[in-house]
Write a structure and sequence with these properties.
Layout (H helix, E strand, L loop, with lengths): L7 H25 L7 H14 L7 H16 L6 H23 L12 E12 L4 E10 L9 E5 L13 E9 L12 H7 L2 E7 L4 E4 L6 H19 L2 H12 L7 H10 L9 H20 L2 H6 L2 H19 L4 H18 L7 H14 L7 H19 L13 H31 L6 H26 L5 H23 L13 H16 L8 H10 L9 E3 L5 E5 L4 E5 L5 H10 L5 E3 L4 E4 L2 E4 L2 E6 L2 E7 L13 E4 L11 E3 L1 H7 L2 E5 L4 E5 H5 L12 H8 L5 H7 L2
Parallel strand pairs: 3-5, 9-10, 14-15, 15-16
Antiparallel strand pairs: 1-2, 1-4, 2-3, 4-5, 4-6, 7-8, 7-17, 8-9, 11-12, 12-13, 13-14, 17-18
Helix pairs in contact: 2-4, 2-13, 3-4, 6-7, 7-17, 8-17, 9-11, 9-12, 9-16, 11-12, 12-13, 14-15, 14-18, 15-16, 15-18, 16-17, 18-19
Length: 728
Amino acid sequence: MSTAAPPRFGREVGAVLRRRLVLPLGALAAAERPRLALWLPVAMGAGVAWYFALAAEPPLWAGAAGFVLALALAVAGRAARIGPVAIALAAVAAGVAAAQWRTAAMPPAIRELPFGAVVAEGTVVAMDVLAEGRRVRLAEVRLGEVGPVLTRDIRLRLASGDATPLAPGDRVRLRTLVRPPAPPAAPGAFDFQRVAFFGRLGAVGFALGPAEVVRPAAASSVALALARLRQAVVARTLAAVPGTAGAVAAALLTGQRAAIPEHELARIRDSGLAHLLSVSGLHVGIVAALGFLAVRLALGLWPWALLHLHVKKIAAIAGIALGLGYMLLTGSEVPMQRAIAMAALVALAVVLDRSGVGLRALALAACVVLLLQPEAVLGPSFQMSFAAVLALIAAWEGVRGTWLAPRRDRTWLARAGWGVAALAFTSLVASAATAPFGAFHFQRVQVYGIAANALAVPVASVWVMPWGMAALLLMPFGLEVVALAPMAVGIEAILAVAREVASWPGAAPGLPAMPGLGLAACAFGLCWLCLWRTRLRLAGVPVLAIGLASPWLVRPPDILVAPDARLIAIRAEDALHVQSLQGASRFVRAIWTERSGGLPMRPLPARGRPAAAIDCAPDACMIGEAGRAAAVLLRGDPPWRWCGRVAAVVSAEPVRARCAGSVVVDRFSVWRDGAHAVWLDRDDARVVSDRGHRGARPWVPPPPRTRAEREADALPRAPLDEEAGRFR
């Protein structure tokens, strides 16, 4: 009997699979093909993130070579239908190349700074008014009388009570203590050194005396002129409106929010209104819309203009020009760049009589930001801004044809109800989209953010920002108080909402630190959910859910050691049991509390058992199960008593002798490699240092040299002929 033909059962199974699976998937893929271009910025962002996740710096040519090869593969593989995959690889390589070139363009980090007090001389390029005092940023800095001019800026807090008049462009001299940017408080925590590297900041410190103006500001660059204008706006705003309302007004007009008291900032954050203080796309959208409406109304009242000019097109260009000026005044942050790029595309579409609003405009804006400022992809500003706009565009695409869609045939009462529902829907979508990124960066989620935004955003949009723009226009005439007074009334209303919502129970619960892979899963799941149109988008929901659950899927470290070893924490029984020495950093303590999800910090006792896994004596604390210590925290006990008996020996003092059979984390360890985290098992310990986590990157300081190594480098070298003769 012949077996060439497949059995009937096999043919039936194949037909069912083809009908139920293959054909539907093929139809979905065909329907989504026009949306493939929207994934280009996602691929570029993945390339940028991959570059920053590397443990070592790749060759400078690697990204560019990968881009060229991927493009060649895309051209050669069009017939084989691998073109889209090759283009995606080219976008990934473009992201890597952009990040590499951006890093290479940065001046090298300052590796050695004076340990003691030093006289610093530099040019003021920016000045922040703080809640208490002032802070300046200096460029072209010289430390000491004969030191070289630094290639990076330094940021200094002026001495308390120093009222020396300073303006951007002034050349100043002051006695100061400077230190390198602080390392992360724990492996995987916020990396201020990376932010400072790309911000061209080389050191931070504080002044030990009043500043002396060596040379007043002269003719300068556009950047310094904008900085002087920003400082003048802040000073006149705070003079017209004192207190927190004035500080918030200055933040909305210039982007400088350092003058807002910390307790008010905490309430604003906990209520979910922090985005109103971070000048973003919402603000530039309001400003551009105000410019558009004002110009269109003014020209609409001029009959000749209505007959001879394209009023709508002129108004669109005027709105973008006003938004661009506002962006320059407030410091050109990433959300502003995204908003201006999208608004410019909208204005261009109006001029060309086309439709320019949608995901394609957002994708193009993202590509521009990633090419010009690739490091922004790691920051909360970029992530939350693009996530909110992406979710809003996708959500409003999804409600077309429903009762939420705008309609002109509604009565005024129905339109008012629709406006309230649309505002609540917008707040819900934006809050849900940005929540994973806020949880990753700040370990908090604002539970009542929808209610707070529903009350505060209309006030900011309809009342506060229009009066703020009027204040800027009136400042040249000295009449800004006419507009700042009603602006302050609206700000007080927003602050009242923030205080009320922040006081509600459970307004901002703390969350454990989310791992980087969890954030990547959230970002990919959100993009998958928003960029596709068909049922294929639902596959992003489980990916997003895994990312959201990731903080509880990873095991937190059992022991944390601060970068200076003055703070050591042991995690046990839902608390952090802390050994704190004199001079321990309160900032590190706060970061550890946030990353633990708000666990209480309890001091380790001199003697006793603060938890079942911790047994303390005056000379050591044993850590582990009863009767079998997995680690020990030394408090004066000699290390040799524990070496080989426990998996890890932790000490705030140097362990000078070799400790065979145990991993040692001591003062020397953190001096070389930064903060440490330790995970304990019954017979083993896994240790991760900050240097091991970040790798050898341009923004990570190299291992410090000992005094003997520095002295050896300082010794005079022998003449070359003597060295050559020695080896003949």
